[in-house]
Automatic annotation (TrEMBL):
Pfam families (alphabetical): tRNA_m1G_MT
Assembly mode: Homodimer.
EC number: 2.1.1.228
Molecular function GO labels: tRNA (guanine(37)-N1)-methyltransferase activity
Role of this protein: Specifically methylates guanosine-37 in various tRNAs.
UniProt name for this protein: tRNA (guanine-N(1)-)-methyltransferase
Main location: cytoplasm
Organism: Anaerostipes hadrus
Domain tRNA methyltransferase TRMD/TRM10-type: 3-226
Length: 239
């Protein structure tokens, strides 16, 4: 069982977003648990305020440290060990598949979602273990990034995908993008499904798919292709 705790000002957003399809089924099956904690519940202000103006001036509001700290401490007290706490921020390391694999090994993970101009630095210094971005652009809050991360981590948890093999062939798993996929009908807008896929010849299908993966990776992600070629050369002993 993997447990994801999300510290957020908008718990309904993450709960509604994650409780569907494959992830929803995995929650129902008891393979995953999602616990969204409303940071606002930990405000001691009579108007339940959680933000204030930035010291030093400038636009926007900053989330105050105390409610975030209290919300985190309340979670931590019931955990066996100090969890990894991921702060979603455009200033973090860019999320990738290897990171998803590594995080899938953790039984409990805490995701901290910022809003407005972000969160007071002092509480981040105190509780955050990982600063993660989902790309070089700025969103209004950390909820969508947390959902992106939880979705990709969850599908690596054994049993979440019905056929565990289907994570194995996927893009990035072997350093390449996945080959193109086809299903019925055999002809669509005069385009036929590649003949080899109808041949039943497993070795030829495997070769064709590998060639397509290579072609696609070279065209769409030359950076990945370069890294793949380098790794293959190293495996070959630099020949
Ligand atoms: N002032 C911050 C800066 O310039 O780095 C941006 C704050 S952003 C408007 C509000 C919140 O959205 C952040 O605290 C973070 O939690 C989340 N966020 C925005 N873009 C993100 C991204 N690319 N990856 C992860 N989280 C992001």
């Amino acid at each position: 069982m993997n447990r994801f705790h999300i510290l957020t000002l908008f718990p309904e957003m993450v709960m509604d977003g994650l409780n569907t399809s494959i992830i929803g089924r995995a929650i129902e099956a008891g393979l995953l648990e999602i616990n969204a904690v409303n940071i606002r519940d930990y405000s001691t202000n009579k108007h339940m305020k959680v933000d204030d103006y930035p010291y030093g001036g400038g636009a926007g509001l900053v989330m105050q440290p105390e409610p975030v700290y209290r919300a985190y401490k309340d979670l931590e007290k019931d955990m066996k060990k100090k969890p990894r706490v991921v702060y979603l921020t455009p200033q973090g390391t860019t999320f990738h598949q290897e990171m998803a694999k590594e995080l899938a090994k953790e039984e409990e993970l805490v995701f901290l979602c910022g809003h407005y101009e972000g969160i007071d630095e002092r509480v981040l210094e105190e509780i955050v273990t990982d600063y993660v971005s989902i790309g070089d652009y700025v969103l209004t809050g950390g909820e969508l990034p947390a959902m992106v991360m939880i979705d990709s981590i969850s599908r690596l948890v054994p049993g979440v995908l019905h056929n565990d093999d289907s994570a194995g062939d996927e893009s990035f798993e072997n350093g390449l993008l996945e080959y193109p996929q086809y299903t019925r009908p055999p002809v669509f807008l005069d385009k036929e499904v590649p003949e080899v896929l109808l041949s039943g010849h497993h070795e030829n299908i495997r070769k064709w798919r590998h060639e397509q993966s290579v072609k696609r990776t070279k065209e769409r992600r030359p950076d990945l292709w370069e890294a793949y070629e380098k790794e293959m050369k190293e495996k070959d002993g630099g020949k």
